[in-house]
Write a structure and sequence with these properties.
735 residues, alpha/beta, five-stranded antiparallel beta sheet, 22 strands
Length: 735
């Protein structure tokens, strides 16, 4: 599928790159929202993090979950300090939001550097959770008076897909604060609502009559003629279509699972089982397909990823049949006769971290999940079909009460020709809420965006220049550093370096006043000059030429001073202070360099990207320094946990030391239980382990299935330990 950046998409990209306005990017199914997300990540200069409300959505967006990024509490959030009286549900409040959460320095530093947060599949994001995100960002970034702590947010999704889920007892309370559960009704967006941008070019459908019907369903404007047209595709004998490449879309997991299990059992021949290869940390809730995949020749399967070779042989949602299968290979043939050998695919569980040397946000792979990108495809739920494309589908919409399910199911198809209804679509009204209508009607046109971009860009650039040339942080850090010499505990060895420190302060101190004067000049230019951009670009270029050498010299002087220190073992605290001080000079130097480039690129109507920044001498020199001074620990993460466990530390102690959750450490140790290097009975007591083993057999693939049969005294880690031990026992018997 090719993706050409439309005029509207180009303006939206400019808005993201040169303003700080929040954007809600929506569009009908198949308009390229996910492709636009990838374009922004690849082309923006901003320090960007991608997140989503659920694990699978995060993996598909190549990001992380919002809960893991910000350590958000589970359950509902109330934007006030007290718990409401007489409620039968537990709520997190402003008073309790941070009471049970500890943010380490690495997490705080990462969050402080985020400039753009992209939230994908925002239709699943509740208003109360977004307010929780708002207050968390304000707290961690220490910018309590700025919505979302000054972070720009790009929301992506189609609100008229499936709505966010709220329990009835939660909504009884939340309805006192929110007019709907949708994200746009969050209190944090009231004074700064996102610009509502809708991509309008549809890539999935080419049948214009079908596109028009979909649009009317999406806007709740479907006519009796539309419903009659669709109901012409009702077939009471739909079951006779089995084996003809149709996928059954239903509203419930149980029904889809039953259909797939029955169809697989009906096939003759041997069943082949393929177990995924898991490396490092890859939790069950992130797994996009089966841990143990059972397939037969003749099975109808669906690809869940695009062709990694870029040849377009298959795509996410393409259906075919297994025509050849053995223990090592799977071949799938499509209706057009094309047969492909299915390659395995590796999904990655990522975490964002801040590179302390370059001050850039980087991705770190925590674990991977390698499996064939297939699922049995006689049936799938409407919920799991979001984002997929089908040529042929049987729609069972008898229970499609959730707002948007009819639209989602219909919009999976490429044309009316492939539609079969197992039951007729009712005439009932698929009503959408008033707040949804109001928000949907606020969509901005390309012309409106172009007009507003001029003002919004000016406001952002002036704000950015003001923040960049404000040297108050460095000034404060230097003063605090000088004060530290007067503390009794820091006397002796460190004290002899006070004269050098005073000399550094004298060299650098004047820049604060000069910077303040420069900021005032820029504000006057922006307020009074129509050609402010050209003038501001020129002034910033000259200011950069003045300030950067001063910052550069201070940075190098601090490093040289540190290198020349004698008796370094007695100066560990002092050397840490020097490193933190040098980092502040580098960060300010980096910010000035970046704003200088941004203004130049904006003046030339070019989009500044992170790649442009990485190609500069500043970035390259810093990376070279990092390679020289930093030795990487290449020990696998699970092995690190094993060594700590073997040293006598408990799972909880290891988790605390490594900044991970106990469940992750338990997952690491399960690898060594299965190999026989760790005794399961040392982790879980004998009675509990024996009880769990009675529930586990060769067909058991999901820890949640076992956990559901046990009491609350059993944890998921307990179950995973038992499953690993069961596999170890079976392996021992066969060897």
């Amino acid at each position: 599928m090719s993706f050409e950046l439309s005029e509207l998409a180009k303006i939206t990209a400019d808005y993201i790159n040169t303003t700080d306005r929040h954007i809600f990017l929506t569009g009908k199914a198949g308009t390229g929202k996910t492709t636009f997300l990838k374009y922004i990540v690849a082309h923006t200069h901003k320090k960007t993090v991608v997140a989503a409300p659920t694990g699978i959505a995060a993996i598909n967006a190549e990001g992380v979950t919002l809960h893991s990024l910000l350590q958000l509490p589970f359950g509902a959030f109330i934007p006030q300090h007290t718990q409401p009286p007489n409620v039968n549900a537990q709520f997190t409040t402003l008073a309790t939001l941070f009471s049970n959460v500890r943010f380490n320095a690495s997490k705080r530093n990462l969050i402080k550097e985020i400039e753009l947060l992209i939230i994908d599949e925002v239709s699943m994001l509740r208003a109360d959770l977004l307010d929780c995100i708002d207050h968390t960002l304000r707290f961690l970034r220490r910018r309590r008076n700025e919505p979302f702590g000054g972070v720009q947010i790009l929301f992506i999704g189609d609100l008229l897909q499936l709505p966010p889920v709220v329990k009835d007892n939660e909504w009884q309370v939340l309805s006192q604060y929110y007019s709907s559960s949708y994200f746009f009704d969050a209190i944090g967006l009231k004074n700064n609502p996102p610009l509502n941008v809708e991509l309008d070019k549809i890539y999935r459908q080419s049948d214009q009559e079908f596109i028009d019907i979909l649009n009317r369903f999406r806007e709740n404007q479907q006519s009796p003629e539309d419903i009659n047209k669709l109901n012409q595709h009702y077939r009471s004998d739909y079951q006779s279509l089995t084996g003809q490449g149709y996928i059954h879309l239903t509203t419930h997991n149980k029904k889809a699972d039953e259909i797939n299990a029955e169809r697989l059992a009906d096939l003759p021949g041997n069943t082949f089982t393929y177990r995924a290869k898991i490396s490092g940390d890859f939790p069950e809730n992130l797994q996009a397909t089966s841990l143990e995949m059972r397939l037969k020749e003749g099975a109808q399967v669906m690809f869940i990823k695009n062709d990694p070779n870029g040849e377009g042989r298959f795509f996410n949602g393409k259906i075919g049949h297994i025509t050849k299968i053995n223990a090592e290979d799977i071949w799938v043939t499509f209706d057009d006769g094309l047969a492909v050998q299915v390659p395995s695919y590796t999904w990655e569980n990522k975490r964002y971290s801040l590179n302390k040397e370059t001050n850039e946000i980087e991705e770190k792979v925590l674990g991977s999940f390698e499996q064939y990108p297939l699922k049995l495809a006689w049936a799938v739920t409407v919920h799991k079909s979001q984002g997929l494309t089908f040529d042929r589908a049987i729609l069972d919409l008898t229970d499609a009460f959730a707002q948007g399910q009819v639209y989602v199911a219909l919009s999976r198809l490429t044309s009316l020709n492939g539609l079969v209804l197992s039951s007729k679509i009712p005439d009932s009204n698929f009503a959408i809420s008033d707040s949804m209508k109001e928000f949907s009607n606020s969509r901005a046109t390309a012309h409106q965006l172009s007009q507003n971009l001029v003002t919004d860009r000016k406001n952002y650039l002036v704000k950015l220049i003001t923040e960049t040339f404000n040297f108050a942080t460095i000034d404060f850090a230097l003063k605090e550093h000088v004060k530290s010499f007067n503390k009794q505990e820091n006397r002796s060895v460190k004290q002899q370096h006070l004269p050098w420190t005073i000399g550094l302060v004298k060299e650098v101190q004047p820049i604060k006043g000069i910077g303040d004067n420069f900021i005032n000049q820029i504000r006057k230019i922006a307020a009074n000059q129509s050609d402010y951009l050209a003038l501001a670009t020129e002034r910033v270029s000259k200011a950069s030429a003045y300030f950067i050498p001063i910052l550069q010299k201070a940075s190098k002087d601090i490093k040289l001073h540190d290198d020349n220190l004698t008796d370094k073992t007695k100066l560990k605290t002092y050397r840490k202070e020097l490193k933190e001080l040098e980092q502040q000079f580098f960060n300010q130097w980096q910010s000035i360099h970046k704003v200088n480039l941004l203004l130049q690129f904006t003046l030339e109507d070019r989009m500044l990207s992170r790649k442009d920044l990485e190609l500069t001498e500043l970035h390259e020199s810093r990376k070279t320094e990092t390679k020289k001074t930093k030795r990487r620990d290449k020990t696998p993460t699970a092995e690190v946990s094993l060594k700590l466990y073997q040293s006598g530390k408990s799972i909880e102690e290891i988790a605390e030391e490594r900044g991970l959750v106990p469940g992750t450490i338990g997952g690491h140790l399960c690898q060594y239980i299965e190999s026989g290097d760790v005794d399961a009975y040392r982790i879980v007591d004998m009675e509990k382990l024996d009880n769990m083993l009675t529930l586990i057999n060769d067909e058991t693939t999901s820890s949640s299935e076992v956990k559901a049969k046990l009491g609350d005294e059993y944890t998921y880690t307990d179950v995973k330990v038992a499953m690993a031990y069961y596999r170890y026992q079976n392996k021992s018997k066969t060897e």
